[in-house]
Amino acid sequence: MALNESHKQYLHLMGVQPWELRNARSDAHPPAVAQAQPGEQSAEERTAAEAHHSSVETVSIPSAVVNSTSAQGPSSDAVAVMDWEPLQDAVTHCRQCELHQSRTQTVFGVGNRQAQWMVVGEAPGADEDRQGEPFVGRAGQLLNNMLYAIGLQRESVYIANILKCRPPNNRDPKSDEVAQCEAYLKRQVALIQPKIILAVGRIAAHNLLKTDTSLAKLRQKTFHYADTETPLVVTYHPAYLLRSPREKRKAWQDLQYAVSVFKKQK
Ligand code: URA
């Protein structure tokens, strides 16, 4: 099958060397696709990894809601009406699960608060815990390249995780941790109102979709996030792709699929 230019570009950015590219130049430029805005990770590899829409209404927080803030953090009802500043503040000071004891800092999320694309990963790793930003390690570099391959700069999207704190030794998130953190991500999605959510990796997909179906069966399908109309597409976690480079071709199919879903959005 002949490779088009954007596919070749993707393969190059992803570190895949198809025979078509042998002896090809190695300098990379962003592909001219999806200009508007257009999975799975091991625990160990996790380490190797803001103005909102004018249509988004935020409300001032009634004192009764503010008062529902417990010693550990605000109630999910309180979080559900927060604007960015109180939301970030609530995350920074959250002590609702045991992860606050071992974190260096919280990892709120990063990027364009008017993004059309939102990427959701699993949880901060060591690099992210140190720097306070999601996907800054090796997996983050690959994620940047995956986005670049479909014409997206990291800065143009919004990137967040299921968990805002690093699980010790990069173990999988526990269900109570996910539950305690859920309201924060939900509010981020509500404030951003992305046109598409890209869930990277099994943990993100399972927790966003409340399913335990294998990632292989979840990819190349359109779901919707929680009780919203926001389409959600699943692909492999970049840390998994670092470990299993052969799967990068499937990830390219998923990215192309996500672009096609995005383009159908108004
Ligand atoms: N892996 C994730 O899922 N999220 C990060 O922020 C970093 C690595």
Q: What does this entry look like structurally?
A:
The protein is globular, with a radius of gyration of 18 Å. The chain has 266 residues and is an alpha/beta fold. It has a single domain (42-263), classed as Uracil-DNA Glycosylase, subunit E (3-Layer(aba) Sandwich), CATH 3.40.470. A six-stranded mixed β-sheet has the order 1-3-2-4-6-5, sandwiched between helices. 40% of the residues lie in helices and 9% in strands. The model is unreliable at 21-39 and 43-69 (pLDDT under 50). Strand 5 (223-224) and strand 6 form a beta hairpin. The two termini are 32 Å apart. Helix 1 (5-13) runs antiparallel to helix 8 (138-149). It has helices at residues 5-13, 43-47, 63-66, 76-79, 84-92, 99-102, 126-131, 138-149, 175-192, 202-209, 215-218, 238-243, 248-264; strands spanning 110-111, 117-121, 158-161, 196-200, 223-224, 231-235. The protein is built from 13 helices and six strands. Uracil (URA) binds at residues 41, 46, 49, 121-125, 128, 134-135, 139, 161, 239.
What attributes does this structure have?
six-stranded mixed beta sheet, alpha/beta
Fraction of residues in helix:
25-40%
Q: Mean pLDDT, as a whole number?
A: 86
Assign the CATH topology.
Answer: Uracil-DNA Glycosylase, subunit E
Hetero ligands: uracil
Overall spatial form: globular
Strand % is: 5-15%
Output the number of helix runs: 13
Write down the Rg. Answer: 18 Å
- The SS-based structural class is alpha/beta
SSE layout:
Layout: H1 5-13, H2 43-47, H3 63-66, H4 76-79, H5 84-92, H6 99-102, E1 110-111, E2 117-121, H7 126-131, H8 138-149, E3 158-161, H9 175-192, E4 196-200, H10 202-209, H11 215-218, E5 223-224, E6 231-235, H12 238-243, H13 248-264
Parallel strand pairs: 2-3, 2-4, 4-6
Antiparallel strand pairs: 1-3, 5-6
Helix pairs in contact: 1-8
Bound molecules: uracil.
